[in-house]
Amino acid sequence: MLKLTAIETSRQAVWAARQKGQQSGLVPTMGALHEGHYSLIREARARCDFVAVSVFVNPAQFGPNEDITAYPRTEAADLAACESLGVDLVFVPAVESIFPPNTLTNVVVSGLTERLCGLRRPGHFTGVATVVAKLFHILPTDVAFFGEKDYQQLQIVKRMVRDLDIPIDIVACPTIREPDGLAMSSRNVLLSTDERQRAASLSHALFRTRDRVLGGERDVATLTAAIRDEIKAAGPFDVDYVEIVDDQSLEPLTTIDRSARICLAARIGTVHLIDNIGVDVPPTG
Ligand code: AMP
Prior knowledge:
Elements: E1 2-4, H1 7-19, E2 24-29, H2 35-47, E3 50-55, H3 75-84, E4 89-91, H4 95-98, H5 116-120, H6 124-138, E5 143-147, H7 151-163, E6 169-173, H8 193-214, H9 220-233, E7 238-246, E8 260-268, E9 271-279
This protein binds adenosine monophosphate.
């Protein structure tokens, strides 16, 4: 396994694989790898001959009030995990090489970035889109793998690739959960024991709501009120949003009459958690 920090050598390693006719895949991450990331890497390994993983805690996606220094970093364990999963290249760049001083260009995906997490985290998705676009140029693979855990991010990346004609296929991978339903996240280690127990209520509320939709309830106000009640009953949470949206445009729905995504974000203590689940209903009319 190659561990590279330099942009040019990393690009050349991907090109070398492509020139051999190998199918190449990229898994972009911020490190502190867990089973959620592993599932993306395994999917990449299953589909591709050459697998690259990037590990970069992207300062451009942290707001001024968000503490990037608190983000967990476990480089040695991440490298060992990548090695054992059969990764070919781990790209671990320095912040200054990705964002040299005087960088003037950003990738702004309008509309999609202004909903859900984008409203509460101004600039966040511009930081994400910009770094992902850069990674796609530095590591120009055939395919890139993203988790549905970050559903809005996934839709934004798909849209950016389409709008900018970036020749990379985006593969969406399902959310991997802890046995109690909590979506795996690098931030989960920051939860206290009590907070960790309560955090499972987020996914429980999503599963129950999906069942209610499948049972015939279609009214979004009724469903989201029940989610808020259920989360509140589990103890002190700051709920950022609970929304049911069109699963492509992310526009909020009032009635579930098409494929939808139930999305929520909440803070327990200082830890920001997000989760979502899909509901498919046959279109009415
Ligand atoms: P991150 O390191 O949090 O930026 O995540 C890197 C990639 O892993 C993103 O595409 C995430 O959506 C994906 N990911 C993170 N957690 C999970 C999970 N629990 N299940 C599936 N994918 C995940």
